[in-house]
Design a protein that fits this description.
About 35% of the residues lie in helices and about 15% in strands. It is of the alpha/beta class. Helix 1 links the parallel strand 1 and strand 2.
């Protein structure tokens, strides 16, 4: 087989805005806040990566105005993967957050979400939609029926489905039948493995596209942590990333496109690992990286171009 074209493999991070907490990206990947200097974080991010997974859409559907601004602030070939609103995948979380009945889901909810992302589609910058289900979502007759309904509701879009409970991989043939019938990608995930964790092959199930999310391997803080960000406090070593790079390279040959997102976002570890993975795949590690990030993660030395410590302003 011929090698995969680097342009068929897009690597980025899950989210781009982490402004608070111990794991903030400010002053590490993004320049620190200074008087009379405004940094457009999305535009800055897009100097380094050609794709991002939108996580804010999980908490509230994007508005057309918001999506239009995202499109305007990024280069022409940039793509956004967009996570579905929590009402579609996490009804209990939705009810707790909003006080509303999560079971009144209708086509109106679908239409509202589609309207919100329309500017991205019109700009040619919409990548896959992502249906991320919780571990409690097990393979049962009613959940399989719901998944089939959801895939039909968003049939006009590429959609990746993240399933976490082992029952889905234990009944692999039935799961693949549901997904493949809708040309949906079974999202491959790297995370700490427990008894009920899904088992996966890191291989594409459809020809159209491959989708992978790397959450880190911080098993100690996965279920018990002081802050939710602690779960994602994990830096993959170069040796840990090499087999992942091999799997992504193979997927890039087997599928038309491949999307890989680092979700180990604590203290910009996702940025560092995304740059390393790009390097291992022979891709250009675009943009300049601040000395602060290279100082924190010396493994980046020789992989990334280091910027001048002088802060650039953006209008």
């Amino acid at each position: 087989m011929s090698p995969a074209r680097s342009t068929s493999i897009r690597i980025g991070t899950a989210g781009w805005s982490y402004p608070t907490g111990k794991g903030t990206w400010k002053g590490l990947f993004y320049p620190p806040k200074q008087p009379r200097v405004r940094v457009d974080e999305l535009a800055y991010y897009a100097e380094h990566f050609d794709t991002v997974e939108v996580n804010s859409s999980f908490y509230r559907p994007p508005t057309p105005v918001m999506a239009k601004r995202w499109a305007e602030r990024t280069p022409g070939r940039f793509e956004f993967a967009v996570k579905l609103y929590q009402k579609f995948t996490h009804p209990e979380m939705f009810a707790k957050a909003t006080g509303k009945d999560p079971h009144d889901l209708t086509d109106v909810d679908v239409d509202e979400f589609v309207a919100g992302i329309a500017p991205l589609a019109e700009a040619g910058k919409l990548g896959p939609l992502v249906a991320q289900f919780p571990t409690s979502f097990r393979s049962e007759p009613d959940t399989r029926e719901y998944l089939a309904w959801l895939l039909e509701a968003f049939k006009d879009y590429q959609i990746a489905v993240e399933l976490r409970h082992r029952s889905w991989s234990d009944d692999r043939a039935a799961t693949e039948e549901i997904l493949s019938a809708a040309s949906a990608a079974w999202a491959q995930i790297d995370e700490p493995k427990f008894r009920d964790s899904i088992r996966q092959t890191f291989k594409p199930n459809v020809r159209d596209f491959f989708y992978m999310r790397l959450h880190g391997r911080n098993a100690a803080a996965w279920w018990k942590h002081a802050k939710s960000e602690d779960r994602y406090d994990y830096l993959y070593s170069e040796d840990e990333l090499k087999p992942i790079a091999d799997a992504v390279r193979d997927a890039g040959r087997a599928a038309r496109k491949a999307y890989v997102y680092m979700n180990n976002h604590f203290a910009a570890k996702a940025v560092a690992n995304a740059a390393i993975l790009k390097h291992q795949l022979g891709q250009d590690v675009a943009g300049e990286y601040p000395p602060s990030l290279v100082d924190r993660y010396p493994v980046l030395d020789g992989i990334v171009r280091v910027s001048s410590p002088l802060l650039r302003s953006s209008s």
